[in-house]
Structures are given as structure tokens and as C-alpha cells.
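Example record

Each entry pairs one chain with its bound ligand, flavin-adenine dinucleotide.
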Amino acid sequence: MPWKWYDSTVKKIEDASPNTKRFWLKVEEPLPFTAGQFVTMDLPISEKRLKRWRSYSIANAPEPEGQLLEFCIVQLEGGAATRYLFEEVEEGSNIRFKGPSGTFVLPQPIEKDLVLICTGTGVAPFRSMIHHIREAGLAHRNIHLIFGTRYADSILYRHEFEALEQTMPNFKYSIALSREENWEGYRGYVHQIYQEHYSEVRPDVDFYLCGWSNMIDEAVAKLILEMGYNKSQVHYELYG
Ligand SMILES: Cc1cc2nc3c(=O)[nH]c(=O)nc-3n(C[C@H](O)[C@H](O)[C@H](O)COP(=O)(O)OP(=O)(O)OC[C@H]3O[C@@H](n4cnc5c(N)ncnc54)[C@H](O)[C@@H]3O)c2cc1C
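C-alpha cells for the complex follow.
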């Protein structure tokens, strides 16, 4: 899909965790995109064009095709764009962006198990993909979403994924919390979960990773160098 510039209006903003918000942007015309893609916002945070641009993954599915896009954004300390988005943007604000962009999308057809590994807002493209598989009724095998964050109050879309685990065939959801004391699930990082579940290397599984470089670098090294998966089985979207 070729990208173009869109004008949008912020329709709704909601807290998703203590430092993360969900933003819903309404575009003037439906925006066709593929689940997993992102847009690049032009935010008034610098005189220089390229310094104003920040990319954000679309967090909702392409279905039903509409004019409302959801984004899930974490505020970074000292971050110019996120300071603007969190402190100045409100319902009714206008945001211009270009898109859709990106090749971090589902294979077509889905012939292997999918292991989707993310930390924090890296869950956004996976949320879009999982809902797309469901809404479009795509044939699929096992899908395992592995989400990591520090504390329980920062688990994004928790109730939604827990509900999907009950209703969507072959969907499994695992959470790793690195700093929560009273947590009965995995304590630690996402790595221990896939290392435990996928220690036996097989060709019929693909890993998708999304988030910041600390997690991605470690996961790529573990999957390919330590565990022995083929490079072609590991796909990633780097946030920075
Ligand atoms: C394809 C793509 C999709 C993206 N999608 C999303 C998304 O859906 N949601 C989302 O929240 N972000 C997403 N990002 C990241 C986003 O584009 C910005 O980089 C991010 O919001 C920070 O922008 P900023 O202007 O606030 O920070 P900047 O002013 O650019 O940086 C502020 C400071 O934070 C540091 N920093 C950068 N990353 C981190 C980190 N992880 N932890 C601690 N410090 C850090 C920088 O080095 C810098 O010192 C995506 C990035 C890409 C490339």
C-alpha cells in the first residue's frame, strides 16, 4: 500500500498504565493498512522537519476498515515527542501523519506457529495482527503472545488478551514481570519463556519480536546463536 499524508483529530485518550496512554485518532478518510504497520507523525517539536517525525505502530486491526486508528504510546523521560503527546495533546487536537509503512506483517498464508515476543508498547503491532487473524477468520496454527514489563500495573491490554485466550482457538498468552514481588506467573524477562517453550528447535515456528533494542538484541542472539534457530525464522521491529 503506498503511503500518503493524512490529517487526523484526536478523538479519545485513555490511560493504559501509569506511563502509557492509548490515543484514538480519526482520519478524514479510511486508511487502508496491513496489520503490523506503523505511521510517522509530524509533531511540532522542532523547526527541522526530520527531527519532528516519530513513528508509532497501529494497535487496532484493519477490520472493520474505518477512520479511527489506535496507538499505544509510552512516555519516555526526556522524550520530546512523548512529552508533547502526553502534556499538550488533548481530545480535539490535530495530528498530521504519513503512512502506512513497514514490512513487519504476518506471513501469508500463516503456515507455521507464531511466537510474538514484546515488551511494553511493542505489543501494539501484535494486537493488530491477532485481532486481524480473528476478524478476517484467517487460518492459523498456534499463536503464542509473550509480553514483558516490570510491574503488574503496566501490563497492556491484559483483560483483552486473557479473554482471547479463552475464546480464540490456539491462542496462548504469557506474561513476564521483572520487578513485581507478588506475582504468581513468570518473574523475570520474556527470554525465559520462549527458551523454556521452544528449546527444541523446529522449522515450523516463526518468532516475531517488537520493542526496544535491549530486548531485541538479546532475543535475536539467544534465538539464533544460543538456541540454533535459522535467521529466516526470526523477524523484528525495532522501536529504537
Ligand atoms: C517503526 C516504529 C514504531 C514505533 N511504535 C511505537 C509505539 O507503538 N509506541 C511507542 O511508545 N513507541 C513507538 N516507537 C518509538 C517512537 O517512535 C519514539 O522513538 C518514542 O516515542 C520516543 O520519542 P521521544 O521523542 O519521546 O523521545 P526522544 O526525544 O527521541 O528520546 C528521548 C530520550 O530517550 C532515550 N530512549 C529512547 N528509547 C528509550 C527506551 N526504550 N527507554 C529509555 N530511554 C529511551 C533516547 O536515547 C533519548 O535520550 C516506534 C518506533 C519505530 C521506529
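The chain has two domains: 4-101, 113-238.
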